[in-house]
């Protein structure tokens, strides 16, 4: 059996092209994952800011930035998160380009700072609320942000598409503080 000239070169070239295409797809997926992460981070920060509903009456009288209606703040956070990430009422993405399966709100915290004390309000993943009053010294959010003024922290969990058929579970947490400038 006689081999054609260049058959080895042709095979090697074909393998090199295939490996190059796979590398390009892999690099594209990594790049798009970074863009997706930034998009979701921005959506979470925006939802936190939407929840920063200070009591204007208290601010007008005392110039203190305090969230007095915690339930309203939590509901605004939920609504803004749904809008920002294009989720339905069950927190399922309407477009599965970024995420798969439902987004889960793991934690939502409000830290109201008033005269050296912090009123810490927490809504857990089931929507249950608990409140505690603590001293201001050394208070940090779960992501390590120092609490110096009224602050909102949230943590969500979701699935993102990985390479080919892979799916990755991600957790994202962000804090925003409300300061008087």
In short:
This protein is an alpha+beta fold and 181 residues long. Helices cover 36% and strands 29% of the residues. The longest helix is centred in the first third of the chain and has 44 residues, at 7-50.
- Output the radius of gyration: 24 Å
Beta content: 25-35%
Number of strands: 5
**Strand order within the widest sheet?**
3-2-1-4-5
Terminal CA distance reads 84 Å
The average pLDDT value, as a whole number, equals: 87
Oligomer class = single chain
Helix content: 25-40%
Question: Biggest β-sheet, characterized?
Answer: 5 strands, antiparallel
From the spread of the alpha carbons, the general shape counts as elongated
Listing every helix as H and every strand as E from the N terminus to the C terminus, the arrangement reads: HHHEEEEE
How many helical stretches? 3
Description:
The chain has 181 residues and is α+β, with helices and mostly antiparallel strands. It contains three helices and five strands; from the N terminus they run αααβββββ. The protein has helices at 7-50, 56-62, 70-84, and strands at 99-114, 117-124, 129-135, 151-161, 167-177. The chain has a five-stranded antiparallel beta sheet, with helices on one face. α1 (7-50) runs antiparallel to α3 (70-84).
């Amino acid at each position: 059996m006689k081999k054609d000239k260049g058959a080895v070169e042709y095979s090697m070239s074909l393998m090199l092209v295939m490996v190059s295409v796979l590398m390009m797809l892999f690099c594209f997926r990594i790049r798009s994952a970074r863009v997706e992460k930034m998009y979701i981070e921005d959506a979470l920060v925006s939802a936190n800011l939407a929840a920063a509903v200070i009591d204007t009456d208290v601010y007008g009288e005392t110039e203190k930035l305090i969230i007095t209606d915690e339930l309203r703040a939590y509901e605004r956070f939920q609504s803004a998160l749904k809008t920002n990430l294009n989720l339905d009422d069950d927190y399922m993405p309407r477009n599965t380009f970024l995420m798969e399966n439902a987004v889960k709100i793991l934690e939502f915290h409000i830290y109201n700072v008033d005269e050296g004390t912090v009123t810490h309000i927490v809504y857990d993943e089931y929507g249950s609320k608990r409140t505690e009053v603590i001293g201001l010294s050394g208070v940090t959010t779960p992501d390590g942000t120092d609490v110096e003024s009224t602050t909102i922290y949230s943590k969500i969990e979701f699935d993102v598409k990985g390479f080919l058929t892979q799916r990755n579970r991600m957790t994202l947490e962000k804090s925003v503080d409300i300061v008087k400038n």
